[in-house]
Amino acid sequence: MRQQSYIDETLRSFLVKLGARSPEPAGGAALALAGASAAALMSLTCHADAASGDDQRAGSLETCRLDSERLGRHVQHLIDEDVRAYRSVILALHRPQASAGEKAERARLLDEALKEATEVPLAVAEAGLQMLSLAVGVQDGVRGPVLGDLVAAVHLAEAAVKGSLRNAHINVGAMSDRAYAAGVEDRITEMRGRLEGAAETIAASLHARGVAG
């Protein structure tokens, strides 16, 4: 029988499992949840400020809302993907190693599992970067109480990106396929650069408006 999706559980149930002795869900799923929360808050920000009377701005906010909801659905799916990837790594680690053939098969399966466990956090990080890009695009016009929701979305997205990139770095470090690992490290460097650029832009805008980043 198909296992119920973690995103369909209650938040309380998910948090209980997150803190239990079971190896899943774990940090990657929690970071994906942070990313999904950021997307939801971005959508809220665009909803709340849509009735501004400015047709051009209203159109921009509607685009932001739709993009936020699309990213939210994507990252919710990645919560389950992260759990499945982590499960595959654990299974590969427990493969027998009594013979040279078994060792080779274990190494092959472990590399396959680690690739999946690397691509999922990279996808979470990419979604977080897209959320930050949306925040950059709308932040100057956001005002009133919803500004706090935008700031919360930014912090959650930054955490999702930073933590996910760190997880990807850890996973490729355990791989025997060093060519793939080198390519991933290049991607991580590029994404970190994008994160720093977006974070600096947002922080400067908030500072200019007297809001602590």
List keywords for this structure.
6 helices, elongated, Four Helix Bundle (Hemerythrin (Met), subunit A), mainly alpha, 213 residues
Architecture overview:
The chain is mainly alpha-helical and 213 residues long. The chain has a single domain (23-208), classed as Formiminotetrahydrofolate cyclodeaminase monomer, up-and-down helical bundle (Four Helix Bundle (Hemerythrin (Met), subunit A), Up-down Bundle). 78% of the residues lie in helices and 0% in strands. The protein contains six helices and no strands. Helix 2 packs parallel to helix 4 (100-138), helix 2 (27-48) runs antiparallel to helix 5 (146-173) and helix 5 (146-173) packs antiparallel against helix 6. The longest helix is centred in the middle third of the chain and has 39 residues, at 55-93. The protein is elongated and about 70 Å long. The mean pLDDT is 89.
